[in-house]
Amino acid sequence: MARRLGASVTLLHCYVALPSFDFAAGHLAVAELSLHRWRVRSRLYELTGEARQLLPKCSCRCLSGPPAAQILRQSQRWLADLIAVPLPLDLVRWCCLPEELLDELIRRADCPVLCVPASQGGVGRGISHFSKHVGKPVGVVPKGLKD
After folding, report:
1. Using one digit for the tens of pLDDT, what is the confidence trace for 22-77?
2. Distance separating alpha carbons of residues 101 and 8, to the nearest angstrom
3. Which of 8, 58, 130, 134 could make a disulfide contact with 51, Cβ separation 3.0–4.6 Å?
4. Element (DSSP H or E) covering residue 75
C-alpha cells in the first residue's frame, strides 16, 4: 500500500532494557546492555535495508522508553497518517501487556492504527515477504466498544 501511494515509511523500535539487566552486577551490566542494544539496532537497520528495496522512502528510528508513549510522540511529531503494528507483540510482553499497548495507541493516536497478524504479515521471514498479498488486515477495537 505504501509503495503504491509513494508514502514514506518509518520503522520505529522502542527499546526498553530487559528486566534481567536489573539484577546484573557492576560493569558487566553496562556491557551486556550495550551489546543487547547494539544487536537490536543492527537488526532494525537490516530490516530497513530490506524494506528500502521495496520502499525507497523507508527510514528507521530506535528510541529508548515506553513503547506507547514513544509511538504516540513520534507519530505526532511526524504527522503520521497511519500507525501499523505487527501482532503478536512478543517483544513487549515483559514490559507491558500487548492489549494495553494497543488499547492506548487506538484511544490516543491522532491517526488510524492498523494491526496485522504476524501470520499474515510475514514476521520472521524478512521484509521481502511484504511485497506479496498479505490478506485482509485485522483491526483492533478497544474494549468496551465491541457489540
Report:
1. 566 666 777 777 888 899 899 999 999 998 998 889 999 999 888 889 999 999 99
2. 24
3. 58
4. helix 67-77
As a whole number of angstroms, the distance between CA 140 and CA 147 comes to 13
* 3 within 8 A of 54, measured Cβ to Cβ: yes
Please give the pLDDT value at position 43: 92
Max Cα distance, the chain (Å): 54
Grid cell of 63 as nine digits: 528510541
**In angstroms, how far is CA 81 from the centroid of its own chain?**
16
Helix or strand run (H / E) with residue 45? helix 26-54
Q: Which of 112, 110, 52 is nearest to 85 (CA)?
A: 112
Predicted confidence at residue 80, as pLDDT, reads 92
Return d(Cα 49, Cα 72) in angstroms, integer: 24
Angle at 67 between CA 77 and CA 63, to 5 degrees: 65
Q: Please give the pLDDT value at position 124.
A: 44
Confidence grade of residue 13 (pLDDT, cut at 50, 70, 90): confident
Q: Report the top-level CATH class of 2-131.
A: alpha beta
